[in-house]
Amino acid sequence: xxxxxxxxxxxxxxxxxxxxxxxxxLGALEGRGYQRTGQRDEADVVLFNTCSVRANAEHxxxxxxxxxxxxxxxHPEVVVGVLGCMAEREGAxxxxxxxxxxxxxxxxxxxxxxxxxxxxRDGNSGPQQALAGDRARRSxxxxxxxxxxxxxxxxRSMDAVQRHGSAYVRITRGCNKFCSYCVVxxxxxAEIHRPPDHIVDECRRLVDAGVVEITLLGQTVNHxxxxxxxxxxxxxxxxxxxxxxxxxxxxxxSSFNVGRKLTxxxxxxxxxxxxxxxxxxxxxVTSFPRDFGDDILQxxxxxxxxxxxLHLPVQSGxxxxxxxxxxxxxxxxxxxxxxxxxxxxxxxxxxxxxxVGFPGEDESDFQQSMDLVRACGFKNSYVxxxxxxxxxxxxxxxxxxxxxxxxxxxxxxxxxVQAEVSTAVHxxxxxxxxxVLVEGVSPRGxxxxxxxxxxxxxxGDLIVLFEGSTxxxxxxVPVAIHEARQLALHGAVAAPxxxxxxx
Length: 503
Ligand code: 5AD
Ligand code: SF4
Prior knowledge:
Number of domains: 4
Strand content: 15-25%
Helix content: 25-40%
Radius of gyration: 23 Å
Number of strands: 25
Distance between the termini: 57 Å
Oligomer: single chain
Bound molecules: 5'-deoxyadenosine, iron/sulfur cluster
Structural class: alpha/beta
């Protein structure tokens, strides 16, 4: 008898880090013989990789779990798992509310998903849980925090990557910033920096597998720094690092402080750019405005294939609000950074995030956010209504006192100003031919159109829509821009483009 191939359905919510985590989990499951499916009803394992940043992201998952109670009654053998930040944040409470959940796995324990699914299928041992709990915040060194996730990154399967042309590579995990509204330092734990050799190797393997664009990921990506004085533990073995001059030194040696070496974020960027010349585009997200040195801007300016694009969330244009958000910078410091970036990296595009309706935000604070959007010329801004998150410093100290209608109206007004600014940024590209990495068929395309509308991105991360064959997906093609709208540029495939540095 042919044995039934087990199918896994995984739905991802939230940020790019979750998109990458999902890809790694699916790769690990494929390695154990599972097949991916887009049909939840035919799956043997149903997983949700979740986000806790705002309440509405969590409500969507509650909705999904509710839908599954019926399926679970009919097919109790189907394994239902909640992965990621909600699992970590809610823990056993989630199991109590949703008995249909068999598996809870926090973002730091995802390498254990295949084993936990197997345990769940095998026995009557009840729901399987793998959560970091307090351990998540205990240490910021890779070895002390355990190498579970490092193993997951290292075992990445290259099978799926050719389809996209573009791939994410994690360089830091967790966050130490403790912005007062944010749940991430609790769910993803202390900031940990991956060894540069692991990162460069992963990038090289991706490029060898056909990837043309790599986006380095970190909650505060520019905060990356790796101290080569520290030893790392992989699978329980202390691995000596190669010291300056090629000699290996162990943790004991490093305590003598012999030529202790640091790899800063700018060093890492330069190293990837130099050591992997076949890589056509290198990006990074998300940058934190406080740790952004000129060394990073200089490497961007000097390296042709590093994209001139920054995602630099400001959150508010009011110093009073920024202080209460615990962001650690002032509006004038932020504006000075934007000016430095524009001076050192010609043509750089900048995107931002804003939270509207933060506790105590009044109309004049909000007007300052409107002014900042106009002054900084962001290519786009993601605008979020403040969502109080349990156990964050803001939830404990500050009343969520801006009424929902006011939050909604500020959200619309800020997006309206951003729309004008985005259109102006887009207009600068009219009548130019720019290189575009084709990402796929446009979801905004007209289904009646006779030819396929493709969607891609410029070096500066601007969306470009144009007609063409799906064979172009994953390739960089020159596109002549003939229309600039608020959300995207429109154009047509053209003769060779101006060069890789064109934003
Ligand atoms: N409420 C609303 N938006 C939030 N963000 C983070 N936490 C919250 C919250 N509690 C937004 C920030 C951040 C983005 C990823 O999500 O703008 O940059
Ligand atoms: Fe959250 Fe602030 Fe860390 Fe970003 S920098 S993940 S907003 S705590």
